[in-house]
Design goal:
44% of the residues lie in helices and 17% in strands. By secondary structure, the protein is an alpha+beta fold. It is globular and about 50 Å long.
């Protein structure tokens, strides 16, 4: 089924969440609370800055196309298939082609961790891979449109529970046959004019940041140093910090903290390993530092967080 040729849904609305960010990166955790689980229509538009929030996000574009800057990579979102990613990774829709009505479903990160998903899929999402399908599935168009229509206005609790279960089941199905979304290849861009030359320069910067995020994703649990991160992309440490902030909108230190915390959350939910072992495995130098970081971000102890996943 071609999503662009079906009967259009009710007119999507532009949300305040796509407002201009006041800073280089916008943490939407206050505007979009961690426990909110819902779907909605949006009109995709270019964002002035990156933002992040603690949900796993499902995007389904009904028409047009949009390009995300996600984890240092350019990923083109095309209509007719779902894209799943952890929105805790700074992301920015920086290019939108044509009218681009979009359905977004937001799954709280704790719900995602509690699902019985293949470990490889969870790890891919956690490490900043956007997951999609090799081919569209015709049922998805109707399914995503129904989620958005029935969640607006807010449904009763009985229907809301059914909708949440449908989203969870779609996530589980995607985990069985999902593949990493294709990263846009910029290597063939020519530099015949100043504008194209600038684009090529920007792509080189993105490539450097991609090398840094890849290094951090592999080494975050160790005693990771700025000099090592800079060496991985061939830049001086000062230039590496500036490049990272300009592309992702967060500092290298902020990115490392989020990686450590998210892996700790996954281990607390999915394993019975002792909390002190999890703390050291995820790069925290002491148990007290782990507790401090965890309570600062989640306002609960690691033990209380783990109990949420125990029946």
């Amino acid at each position: 089924m071609d999503a662009s040729t079906t009967t259009p849904p009710p007119r999507p609305r532009k949300l305040n969440r796509l407002r201009a960010a006041k800073s280089m990166a916008q943490d939407d955790s206050d505007y979009l609370p961690r426990d909110h689980f819902f779907a909605e229509y949006q009109v995709a538009e270019a964002m002035p800055a990156a933002h992040w929030h603690d949900h796993v996000e499902f995007n389904f574009l009904l028409a047009g196309s949009m390009t995300y800057l996600f984890n240092g990579n350019r990923v083109v979102i095309r209509p007719g298939r779902p894209y799943c990613f952890w929105a805790g990774v700074p992301h920015q829709a920086f290019k939108v082609d044509g009218p681009a009505p979009l359905v977004c479903a937001y799954v709280p990160f704790t719900d995602f961790l509690a699902l019985a998903l293949p470990q490889a899929f969870k790890t891919a999402v956690l490490n900043g891979r956007m997951m999609s399908l090799a081919e569209p599935e015709p049922m998805d168009l109707l399914l995503f449109q129904r989620w958005a229509a029935e969640w607006n206005p807010a449904p009763g609790e009985a229907l809301a529970q059914i909708l949440r279960e449908e989203v969870r089941l779609r996530l589980r199905r995607l985990a069985l046959n999902g593949i990493p979304a294709e990263i846009e290849d910029q290597s063939g861009i020519k530099t015949d004019d100043p504008l194209t030359a600038k684009t090529k320069a920007d792509d080189r910067l993105i490539d450097r940041v991609q090398k840094m995020t890849g290094f951090i994703n592999r080494e975050f649990a160790g005693d990771i140093q700025l000099a090592d991160i800079a060496e991985a992309c061939g830049l001086h440490p000062t230039n590496a910090m500036a490049a990272f902030k300009s592309v992702l909108g967060v500092t290298i230190a902020q990115y490392i903290r989020r990686q450590r915390l998210s892996h700790a959350m996954m281990m607390l939910a999915d394993t019975d390993r002792p909390i002190i072992e999890i703390a050291f495995t995820c790069g925290y130098g002491s148990l007290s530092r782990f507790y401090h970081a965890f309570q600062r971000e989640l306002e609960m102890t690691p033990r209380d967080y783990r109990l949420q996943f125990r029946s």
